[in-house]
Amino acid sequence: MADPLTPGLLDSPTSLQPEGVAEQEEQARTLNATLPPSLELDDRSFREPVCHRHTAADSGGMWNYFSSLLGTSQKDLENKLKDLENKLNERIHQKVTLLETSLHGLSVQCSVQSDRINNLETRLQHATEELRAMMESRLTSHQNRSDRELRDVKRSLDSVLVPDEMLTKLGARLKQDLDVEVSRLRSHLAALEAHLAKVVPTWTFSGSAGTEDVGYCGKDLPPQQHGETWRLACCRVPRRQRQWRYGCLVGQRSNIATIVDISAIVLDTISIITGYH
Questions:
Q1: pTM
Q2: Cα separation, 264 vs 135, whole angstroms
């Protein structure tokens, strides 16, 4: 026995199988006159036929089934579906418009931020170039100043110091002049000693080198004519001869002995300075 609630399905040329009728009726009973308000925006089931398994050939039977189930005509149901679709489309359009507005605002903000970033990059590049140029200028200035100071120091040293070659030549020239002077003094002293040897009798004996000068020994000799007293006088000769020479001089000839003493001391000093000892 057929269900009186589904006359359209039984009259349809493409009716369902008997075992599927109960399931279809159970699904149909769950539908309300309108769609539930909790339907999400991304639910697209309202855009398709309620039962997409049926073709356009048996759509009339389905509409009759829903019309009898909901107590409305097919036209009213279509109008309600269209109104609902329009409302949903309007809501979707509003949401899309809001999203587009938000995206446009974000795009504008991104463009502004991009311009600011480009401006900052340009300023940073200019500042880096200016800093590099300033550092190079300062480095060049410091280097030039250091070079000038170094040249001034070298010029001052060149004006004060004597080159090594000039010092060597000057030392050799001084040594040569000193050797000539020492030779001249030695020849004069030898001539003086030879002259004294002819005038005054002398005695020569060996003694230890480096001993202290004896000076006048203070021994009085027998008086000679005119009441003059003879006194021994001594003078030191260069150490290489390792001897002491004593001369017997009278009082009136003491100046000659003093000259011999001074000449010997000067000659010894020059010999010690120049290394002739």
A1: 0.30
A2: 75
